[in-house]
From TrEMBL:
<protein>
    <submittedName>
        <fullName>Sugar ABC transporter substrate-binding protein</fullName>
    </submittedName>
</protein>
<dbReference type="InterPro" id="IPR054765">
    <property type="entry name" value="SLBB_dom"/>
</dbReference>
<comment type="similarity">
    <text>Belongs to the BexD/CtrA/VexA family.</text>
</comment>
<feature type="domain" description="SLBB">
    <location>
        <begin position="127"/>
        <end position="207"/>
    </location>
</feature>
<feature type="domain" description="Polysaccharide export protein N-terminal">
    <location>
        <begin position="45"/>
        <end position="117"/>
    </location>
</feature>
<keyword id="KW-0406">Ion transport</keyword>
<keyword id="KW-0732">Signal</keyword>
<keyword id="KW-0812">Transmembrane</keyword>
<dbReference type="InterPro" id="IPR017477">
    <property type="entry name" value="PEP-CTERM_polysacc_export"/>
</dbReference>
<keyword id="KW-0564">Palmitate</keyword>
<dbReference type="InterPro" id="IPR003715">
    <property type="entry name" value="Poly_export_N"/>
</dbReference>
<keyword id="KW-0626">Porin</keyword>
<dbReference type="InterPro" id="IPR049712">
    <property type="entry name" value="Poly_export"/>
</dbReference>
<dbReference type="GO" id="GO:0009279">
    <property type="term" value="C:cell outer membrane"/>
</dbReference>
<dbReference type="GO" id="GO:0006811">
    <property type="term" value="P:monoatomic ion transport"/>
</dbReference>
<keyword id="KW-0998">Cell outer membrane</keyword>
<dbReference type="GO" id="GO:0015159">
    <property type="term" value="F:polysaccharide transmembrane transporter activity"/>
</dbReference>
Length: 212
């Protein structure tokens, strides 16, 4: 290899390294993400909330020209033929129907609106998230009366490296983040149904790797 090319390459490497070192040394610490609490604090009071990515069927009685199927945008809004930006995320289908009736009352006489959901995604705050040594870590749409066993079935159980009995469940209660120990190995491997617990929207399950 040409000596001059080799020396030039070394200079480039040193300059690039110095750039990244100086960049790292002057960088600030990012703020910690905020976990937004779910609107559901009781398993018997669960109501589905609309979220970005949901597909909504909006039917306006006697007004097919303003009825239709609408996908919720990432900003939580939809656009209709009459109104460009209607906020829909975080509302139940019934709440949204009443809200749209109020909006359409400006254009139509006594509008009657029905809203149904075709594709369920929901807000992040209403999803159950499983990370770590699950076979298929993922965010799951909460279903009424969902339990830990239901969640583990959805994620395919544990990997061979998981320490299921050291797993933790993180939940926001009264604005405070709380952490609970859960015994997944006892539930799945030993069949101890007493280890099964109720889940709530927004729960996060962290499954660590076992130390062999």
């Amino acid at each position: 290899m040409d000596i001059r090319f080799t020396e030039s390459l070394k200079v480039v490497i040193l300059l690039v390294s110095a750039y990244f070192v100086s960049g790292c040394s002057s960088s600030s610490t990012l703020p910690t993400a905020t976990l937004h609490p779910s609107n559901t604090a009781n398993i018997n009071a669960y109501k589905y909330l609309i979220g970005a990515g949901d597909v909504l069927n909006i039917f306006v009685w006697r007004n097919p020209e303003v009825s239709g199927s609408f996908k919720v945008r990432p900003d939580g809004m939809i656009t209709t033929s009459l109104v460009e930006d209607i906020p829909v995320a975080g509302k139940t289908p019934t709440e949204l129907a009443r809200s749209i009736e109020e909006i359409l009352a400006t254009y139509l006489r006594d509008p009657v609106v029905t809203v149904t959901v075709d594709s369920f995604v929901g807000p992040f705050s209403e999803q159950v998230r499983v990370i770590g040594e699950a076979a298929e870590p993922q965010a799951i749409n909460y279903t009424q009366h969902m339990t830990l066993l239901d969640v583990m079935i959805r994620v395919g159980g544990l990997t061979e490296f998981a320490d299921g009995d050291d797993a933790v469940l993180i939940r926001i209660e009264n604005g405070q983040q709380k952490q609970y120990e859960i015994m997944i190995d006892e539930l799945l491997k030993d069949g101890n149904i007493a280890a099964n617990v109720d889940m709530l929207p927004g729960d996060i399950i962290i499954i660590p790797e076992a130390w062999f």
